[in-house]
Amino acid sequence: MAAEKADVIIIGAGAIGCAIAYFLSREGVKVIVVEQDSIGAHASGYAPGILNPQVAVPEYLETMLPLTTKSFQLHKELYQQLVAESGIDYYFRQSAILTLAFTRAEAQEIKNKVEMLQQQGFKIRWLNGDAVHLIDSRISPEIIGAAYSEDAGELDSYRYVLALAQAAEKYGAEIRNGRFTGLKRKGARLTAVQLSSGDIACDCTVLAMGPWTGLAASSLDFPVPVRPQKGQTLRVRASGPPFATILAWDTNYITTTRQDALIYHGATHEDAGFDEEPSTAGRDKLIDSLVTMVPSLIGAEVVLQTACLRPLAADGLPIIGEVPGWNGVYLATGHWTKGILLSPVTGRMVTELISGSAASIPTEPFSVSRFNSFRS
Ligand SMILES: Cc1cc2nc3c(=O)[nH]c(=O)nc-3n(C[C@H](O)[C@H](O)[C@H](O)COP(=O)(O)OP(=O)(O)OC[C@H]3O[C@@H](n4cnc5c(N)ncnc54)[C@H](O)[C@@H]3O)c2cc1C
Predict the structure, then answer these.
(1) Do residues 241 and 336 both lie within one domain?
(2) At what angle do helices 157-170 and 15-26 cross, to 10 degrees?
(3) What CATH number should be reported for the domain holding residue 241?
(4) Which atom of ligand 1 is nearest to the CA of 332?
(5) Does the CB atom of residue 72 touch ligand 1 within 6 A?
(6) DSSP 3-state assignment of 310?
């Protein structure tokens, strides 16, 4: 017999679990968050925290744009309030992004995206090489031009996750160390969450275990096609003023606006299972892209190398919703390269789903049931 009870048990204290805990407990729901390591110990605590609401992949556009723009808006609205509630400043700021083109093919692709994003209402334009170098002369002379976009932001991810957790605790949430091992049910109804330390009775749980959420598939008797995608980053120290904008090129970016005055550079996209070890190959690849973008960084001192796992769903879209065949078991994962950006909207959506209030964002495209066909 389970000894204690909560309204909702959230598994995982990354950005997604903590955002859900924050929004739920703000509504007066009694929440327990269970984390096997520590708050923000994985990707959520190490991501460079770039908030880019643009959706440049045409096939994801219609589905993802309402989510990214709503979440970016929520970040803007939340910042002052969350800092006041938590006492933790996470240095949110609005930023511009320069997306660099080194080849004619890259320039053409970026120009096409500029047109597409302008049609969506983004403030973005193409600049030739001379105009880019007026913004920052340290950018490689090899570039042809760049897209300049004003609609982005950034924050310190680790402090942001701590702020969410701290504010949730102020509203009555409890965050504890423990490892999720399974679920108990009576028919379709959830009765308890099983932890390595024992069971907690509850009729509602949210599994927000990032790339590890897929491991719950056997407890759910439902497929959760989420896999880890490894991403490595570098933090380097170099002399000179910070860059005026975030710099992006292909899957690489550079940002310099953190309190520690370091240059954050990422990221690799690797298929390496659950391996979270930084590698020499990853480091070399990142130094290469760093110096390609800004040649004067050749002598920069590497201060930290990180390796973390993005949660990537089979179709590349977030998974947010109730698990078919269960009453009261929800998933919130698969946020891939945009989990920090998408955390507030996910917190809001899950709170609406659990409380039964009207959905402010359509949830259907992100439903768990879209994987029904994976059952066979
Ligand atoms: C290199 C890199 C750069 C990135 N840059 C950005 C960026 O600039 N902007 C952006 O928006 N996104 C970025 N992302 C993506 C973002 O970091 C992720 O999408 C996001 O952190 C996922 O959050 P999460 O809470 O789902 O997962 P996680 O942060 O992985 O948290 C899941 C938590 O669940 C816990 N857990 C797992 N299993 C169990 C269990 N059995 N019991 C208890 N607890 C468990 C884990 O310990 C972990 O703390 C980046 C990712 C990487 C790797």
Answers:
(1) no
(2) 30
(3) 3.30.9.10
(4) 26
(5) no
(6) strand
**What is residue 222's DSSP assignment?**
S
Angstrom CA distances, 208 to 91, 218, 280, stand at: 25, 16, 31
pTM equals 0.97
Q: Is the CB of 14 under 6 A from ligand 1?
A: yes
By residue range, what is the domain housing residue 276? 93-154+227-313
Ligand 1 contact via 13 beta carbon (within 6 Å): yes
Q: How many CB atoms lie within 10 A of CB 160?
A: 31
For residues 306 and 238, state if they share a domain.
yes
Contact criterion met (CB below 8 Å) for 227 and 351? no
CA dist list (Å): 334 to 31, 229, 311, 319: 22, 11, 5, 6
Kindly state if the Cβ of 53 falls inside 6 Å of ligand 1: no
Q: Which of 310, 306, 294, 307 is nearest to 256 (CA)?
A: 294
Residue 193 lies inside a defined structural domain of this protein = yes
pLDDT tens digits for the chain (376 residues)? 445 778 999 999 999 999 999 999 999 999 999 999 999 999 999 999 999 999 878 888 889 999 999 999 999 999 999 999 999 999 999 999 999 999 999 999 999 999 989 998 999 999 999 999 999 999 999 999 999 999 999 999 999 999 999 999 999 999 999 999 999 999 999 999 999 999 999 999 999 999 999 999 999 999 999 999 999 999 999 998 999 999 999 999 999 777 889 999 999 999 999 999 999 999 999 999 999 999 999 999 999 999 999 999 999 999 999 999 999 999 999 999 999 999 999 999 999 999 999 889 999 999 999 998 887 6
